[in-house]
Design goal:
With 321 residues, the protein is α+β, with helices and mostly antiparallel strands. The strands form two sheets. Strands 4-1-12-11-8-9 form a six-stranded antiparallel sheet. The longest helix has 27 residues.
Length: 321
């Protein structure tokens, strides 16, 4: 089993700098895209510097620089490794000017020499698994909103003050507490299904692209890089104001399958994927503002059904290009 990995990260439309950073095997990228083919063992990850703290871009890159030199295998204690990384970032923050309490999230896929895959998460960057046309979140958000909801203190995130709605309760580099390193093994063997794929995103993507929209994007007849690029652009089209990062990991068996995964099918028309995914969304968005909550939910459901029905039409369109 081999793995094709594509990642892309960008500062987005509003931020002056990119506090996101991505790791593909041993390569750290803080701007643009990168692709690679690897054999197990390897690590792929997304880090998102914590907003509201100093030097988030430094913390995210430092975290991945430390992981990039790690020779991962089944004998590596990732919790201890990340606590060590946490302590190094915390110490550097204390020593460096304007970097006190710099912090970052981390969401990574670690695949060992036996091809056993594990999700490792700190913070609210997310990992999804896309199999057989369905998507499921693997990571668990370590956010204040989720904590309050699980403890029955709120029923919806909107009940929180705006400054707390995106707050996280665990991070790497915090001077207040050690990170809660969550480790979740993938239940089914990674790559067992023909269309098995892992997607890791920063909250600049997950906050603005729904799971239903991801399913539509990942189901299009495009190369892996075009699909992931389309999802990232959709986050910005949907009004995203944060940095955006997406990493996709796709197992493959041979060169023929790899060519299928990487063949650029849309050529100059790739940008039209956003048009397909968005289609009538601007008109729908205006209508939602005038609807009651129940009507909004029905309208959203109808919109998703429309998008899904358009997927087959978009595939036929792209094949004609």
């Amino acid at each position: 089993m081999y793995y094709y990995i594509f990642g892309i990260t960008d500062k987005g439309n509003y931020r002056e700098q990119n506090e996101d950073c991505i790791l593909i095997d041993h390569e750290v990228i803080n701007s643009g895209s990168y692709e690679s083919t690897v054999a197990a063992p390897f690590i792929a990850a997304v880090c998102d510097g914590v907003g509201g703290e100093n030097a988030g871009e430094v913390a995210s890159e430092l975290c991945l620089r430390h992981l990039s030199i790690l020779e991962y295998n089944s004998g590596v204690d990732m919790k201890r490794t990340l606590i060590d990384v946490h302590n190094k970032i915390k110490k550097q923050g204390v020593r460096a000017e304007n970097a006190a309490n710099m912090q970052t999230t981390l969401c990574c896929l670690a695949v060992d020499e036996e091809s056993r895959a594990m999700c490792i998460n700190v913070g609210d960057s997310r990992m999804y698994r896309y199999v057989n046309g369905t998507i499921r979140q693997i990571s668990v958000d370590q956010s204040y909103a989720r904590y309050m909801y699980e403890h029955g203190r709120i029923e919806d995130v909107s009940e929180l003050e705006p400054q707390y709605q995106n707050a996280i309760i665990s991070s790497i580099g915090s001077t207040l507490n050690e990170p809660d390193v969550a480790q979740t093994p993938l239940v089914a063997d990674f790559g067992k299904e023909p269309d098995d794929m892992i997607i890791i995103v920063s909250d600049g993507v997950s906050d603005y692209v729904s799971e239903e929209e991801m399913v539509v994007g990942l189901g299009l007849d495009l190369s892996v890089s075009e699909k992931l690029g389309a999802i990232m652009e959709l986050a910005l089209t949907n009004g995203g104001t944060d940095n955006v990062s997406v990493v996709g990991i796709k197992p493959y068996l041979d060169d023929h399958e790899l060519k299928t995964l990487t063949a650029k099918k849309a050529v100059e028309k790739t940008v039209s994927v956003q048009d397909m995914l968005e289609s009538k969304k601007p008109e729908k968005a205006e209508a939602v503002e005038e609807k009651k909550p129940d009507e909004q939910a029905k309208l959203f459901s109808d919109t998703v059904e429309e998008l899904m029905s358009q997927m087959n039409e978009s595939i036929d369109f792209l094949k004609q290009i």
